[in-house]
Write a structure and sequence with these properties.
By secondary structure, the protein is mainly α. The protein contains ten helices and no strands.
Amino acid sequence: MEEKDLSIIEHLEELRKRIIYCSIFFVCVCIFSYFFSSKILSFIIKPLKKYQETIVFLKPVEPFFSILKITFFLSSIISIPFFLFQIYLFIAPGLTEKERKVVKMIFTFFPLLFLLGMSFSFYLIIPFGIKVLFSFGKGVMTPFISITNYLNFLFIFLVAIGLIFNLPVFISSLAYIGIINSRFLREKRKFAIVGAFILSAIITPTTDIFTQILIAFPLILLYEISIFLSKIFNK
């Protein structure tokens, strides 16, 4: 059975429907997340509380906006699978069967690897980075980090490392549709290794070589995984 071609108005109507679904879902998740935001806040400030017993705020509205920021961030993470599903339903009719497989693979593994990257960042990168950064002022300065500055610092690295961990997904997808192959990736391995250290130096919150290695090593490992997966998809 041939699929019916949709007019521009019907496409816009379909897009509006998907946006409404996403908005309703996001609002519901925000309401749910709000009731757990205080517990989430108590959990995510643990890396900082090792060096600063009391978490401070500098403006009267900071506690309120911090709770909202946590609520929106948590809701966004929870909503990713639903958002991707709605995007797929919108674009699927215009894709070939091969393109649909690629999109399904990306949308399936993206949330999983994103959460894995965030966990790696929270349990390894953030605590080690804070330890090194605070060591420069040890015995001379006392930490007095506001909750807003800490959340900004935390969320940036959670998202950045989460996206980086999706490197195998994007490279494997390009290999599946024939844009790149495993041979090309092997030939560019030395450039990838140098690039991993350059990228780690850019996103690392500290200037020490140990933290950079801590980030660069997973990047290199992810690149090697991408080569292996690309070889499979090329076949």
